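Researcher: Please translate sequence to structure tokens.
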Amino acid sequence: MPAGHGTTGKCYTYGSLKFYAKNGFICLHDEETGEFFVLTRKEFLQRAQAISDEAKRLRTIAAENPGKAAWLSADRAALQRAIEDMIAVTKEAKEQGDRNDPVVDAWFMRHRPGRKSKISMASGANFTTALPGALPVGKDTGKQVTPDFSVGAPAKKLILPGDF
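Model: Translation complete:
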């Protein structure tokens, strides 16, 4: 299914921005502000479209003002290189597999390490005989669960906190 399980693509740079594909998503890091974003391909392509619109605007301004054309064309060329890099990184992310695609997500669920789901009862322990209600939706299963308190221990042994 996905070409590179756990892979990171080539790192591209535009100004203080660095962006690369990782596990089907695009990671964007702004070194100037320290901000870090993880974007889907669609969100990243929307940003590329906004930059493309800016490049078109610069071309129009350069045509209207010949005196500014030299430095505007340099800025426009830098924007065009950034757009090409943004399209390349989205292609890399697509090759890695889109985690929002149900087929790809199912592949990752089958191949993730430690496939067993774990439930922590630490916050729900009240040491009474009444069982707690259903736990919230699980991150791995997406379903409500009701614990049955099956614990592997010798017969008639009470497990208390601190005995682990």
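Researcher: Any highlights?
Model: Residues 12-111 form one domain.
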